[in-house]
Design goal:
Elements (H helix, E strand, L loop, with lengths): L1 H13 L1 E3 L6 E3 L9 E2 L6 E3 L5 H21 L1 E7 L2 E6 H5 L8 H30 L8 H10 L6 H15 L4 E4 L1 H19 L2 H9 L5
Antiparallel strand pairs: 1-2, 3-4, 5-6, 5-7
Helix pairs in contact: 2-4, 2-7, 4-5, 4-6
Amino acid sequence: MKDAAASAAIDMLDDLIVCPQCDAAYKLKKPKHGERAICQRCHKVLITPRKNAGMRIIAIALSVVFLIIGAAVFPFLTIDAAGNKNAVSILDAALAFSGGPMILLSIATAGLIVFIPLMRVLLTLYVLLPVVLDRPPARHAITAFRLSEAMRPWSMAEIFAIGCAVALVKIADLAQVSFGPAFWMFGILVVLVIAQDSFMCKWSVWNSLEHPKKS
């Protein structure tokens, strides 16, 4: 009897969706492709199913991996002041204070603008590839996706881009600055990361992980 009651309670919970922003609860009704389910209280988008969104996210994620690696290795800026020319990569800039007690700041900076975005996109690929290929979820996929979402606020590639723009305005009168290949890679990278997040329907991912297809 208790097992039947517990099973009924679980079925009732499966029919509900809770807004992650204001905690309003709604009876679940999955929208069609191209439609959106929006919280009536705070207007948070709850479900946004898109046709072939998984393949698009995977394609974007693969592009982001190569762009992050390239942006970290190739020159980001070349500064010419009074005949002295110097090319700097993103890692060079992040690890500029790698000596003494400032090394922790350098490691944190490199992590926030390079390693955390890279880790997020790798976790996304790990979670989505089996789902998109109609296979059972990878081992610990739920934990991996939860970790990826927890790292989202700490992925600060776009913040770094804004900081670079402010710095360029300040030094434009003091030195001649030219953009290296990593600058353009990083610009495209920021746009792709935003596009990836916009294509991602987190409810659809959680639903696929919690109710996997048999293969």
